[in-house]
Amino acid sequence: MNTQVCPYCQVRVRGHKSRCPLCGHAFMSSGPTPAQQADPALPEAPGAPVPVNPAEPGDLWPLIPEHYNRHILLRALVFISVAAIIFSFAVFRLFPVPVNWPWFVLLGVTSMWLDVSNILLKRRNPVKVISWQLSIILLLGLLWDWGTGWHGWSLAYVLPISCSAAMLALYIIAKVQHMQIQDYLVYLLICAVAGLLPLLFMLLGLVHPVLPSLISVVISMILIAAAFIFYWEVFRDEWRKRFHL
Description:
Elements: E1 3-5, E2 12-14, E3 28-29, H1 34-38, H2 72-94, H3 101-121, H4 126-147, H5 153-176, H6 181-195, H7 197-203, H8 211-230, H9 232-243
Antiparallel strand pairs: 1-2, 1-3
Helix pairs in contact: 2-3, 3-4, 4-5, 4-6, 5-6, 5-8, 6-8, 6-9, 7-8
């Protein structure tokens, strides 16, 4: 194999390079050039610079990118969250009050991390983010309502408003990103089915006022009807593909 010698720093490098990777000066060859290898009768020219071979691989000392710890912010947030929970329980133990506010700190931190985890894990698919966010919001709304003494606002407001907002957000994102109908139809129908749940609570008399629930039920019914009338074949194919039927 040909060996190149830098006339400035005397570094020997194997292969065919145009310049020294250390100092940048032109190389001098101490072995036969590519032309001499093809025709041994040609005289050797030790002082002639060696032409660059485009088929030769990159430098033997490639540029190594600097390494950054991308998770340092995430770890800092985890530490702050754990420290806040521990500190809240310690203060509550020293200064007890009728309201168990450390429970609210714990529930708030849990709510934040559920949302953050969902966004980080599903960030490449916005329709999945919205679908999972709807489930998380409904679960957290029920937990917060129960933890504060159950006033029913999770059923009367959180459930219908979240379902209506999720259906609207899915439709807007699909149109803005020019998505195909099969890429978001199943997720849209899942949100629409969840939007029908307020109908059950309306019939049982568990929600007051009924206007948010009524709006959610109407939007869901119209959406489901439109999907089955205009896109039944698409829904059937997507259902079979996703559930291997």
